[in-house]
Write a structure and sequence with these properties.
Low-confidence stretches: none
Number of helices: 15
Number of strands: 10
Helix content: 25-40%
Strand order of the largest sheet: 1-5-4-2-3
Strand content: 5-15%
Shape: globular
Distance between the termini: 21 Å
């Protein structure tokens, strides 16, 4: 089992062992980074995926997941219990996570559920569940991924982990991506501009675009001619950006740009518009994107960069990351908040 580094490959390999897989199961040491550091070639841009399980394979997986659930004490609830949890959200935080793939989630999911693929939820729990000791209810379509994910969260010390029994039965599913409420968005009044109208302004030299997305997304693709800036430091960045008529703010989906529009208008004292739908809408309209860190009005230090995100010194960053991961055991021993639970082997 392999991943970019170590975490998911170890979790995946141990999951197969816990499930009673009869073959010898191993994780590739240091993952893709280790492969690269050993001097071996990597593939890029591939889209191969494991096939969907056969009916017989799914039945075996369900039986294995049931055994794992019994070993680690995974609790299952029905819809009445979920309704009681939901009614108590004023005093107890409740997370309802759909642990299937994002594609399955978008094809149809239970109303109110958030997308949190099981492996990612285990690896980056704090990305999804910000409240410690919250109630967490997991759902999927057959009980396999929800039970396996629950087993790991229980081992990590989460006490109130539940699996919703028959989660997708008798449900009128919602389709599409999840809708996340953004504080302050309704009050952020902004003039919107369509991709086609912005294209015309840019062709006429009557607009300048500021991209407020992360520096990594900016590097991966932005509107040609756009400048990168960080919202929290926009006042300083505006002094470095030429004025050319209308100032247009962009971000991946337009939300961050809309939040920043009133601030930018007050600081720049010029007309400010927001690209409706963001750079995603620009791209969906068939308009071109530019790549690279072409125009930086601010230092691109807004996000943590993984080793393979580095422009230079990739191998050194990989070694430093792997050393940090190996030392996590000792860090956890020093951390009084860690609550990992040990279960007897079988």
């Amino acid at each position: 089992v392999n991943c970019a580094g170590r975490t998911r490959s170890i979790i995946g390999a141990q999951s197969l062992i816990n499930a009673g897989f009869p073959n010898r199961v191993v994780a590739l040491k240091d993952g893709t980074m280790g492969w690269h550091l050993a001097g071996f070639a990597l593939e890029h841009g591939e889209s191969r995926r494991a096939p969907a399980p056969s009916p017989a394979g799914r039945a075996k997986a369900q039986a294995a997941a049931a055994r794992v659930a019994k070993r680690f004490g995974v609790r299952e609830i029905n819809r009445d219990a979920l309704a009681r949890f939901a009614a108590e959200q004023g005093t107890r935080t409740l997370y309802l996570f759909d642990v299937r793939s994002p594609e399955e989630y978008e094809a149809g999911h239970m109303p109110g559920a958030r997308s949190a693929p099981g492996g990612q939820l285990v690896q980056a729990t704090d990305t999804y569940a910000a409240t410690r000791n919250a109630r967490v209810v997991l759902i999927d379509d057959d009980g396999v991924r929800s039970r396996m994910t629950a087993s790991w969260l229980i081992q990590m010390g989460w006490d109130e982990i539940y699996v919703l029994r028959d989660a997708m039965s008798s449900v009128v599913p919602e389709r599409g991506g999840e809708h996340i409420g953004v504080l302050g968005l309704k009050a952020a009044i902004a003039d919107m501009i369509t991709p086609s109208s912005l294209r015309q302004l840019l062709d006429d030299g009557r607009a300048v675009v500021i991209d407020l997305d992360t520096s990594l997304r900016y590097r991966a693709g932005h509107i040609p001619g756009a400048w990168f800036a960080v919202r929290s430091r926009l006042g300083t960045s505006l002094d470095k950006i030429p004025r050319a008529g209308t100032l247009v703010l962009a971000s991946r989906d337009g939300v961050l740009a809309r939040l920043a529009a009133p601030e930018a208008a007050a600081m720049a004292n010029i007309s400010v518009k927001v690209l409706a739908g963001g750079t995603a809408a620009w791209q969906a309209a068939g308009l071109p994107l530019e790549t690279g860190e072409t125009r930086l009005a601010d230092t691109p230090n807004d996000v943590w960069r993984r080793p393979y995100d580095q422009a230079n010194g990739v191998e050194s960053a990989m070694r430093a990351y792997l050393s940090w991961e190996l030392d996590l055991v000792r860090q956890i021993e020093r951390d009084g908040d860690a609550r990992f639970r040990r279960f007897p082997s079988v």
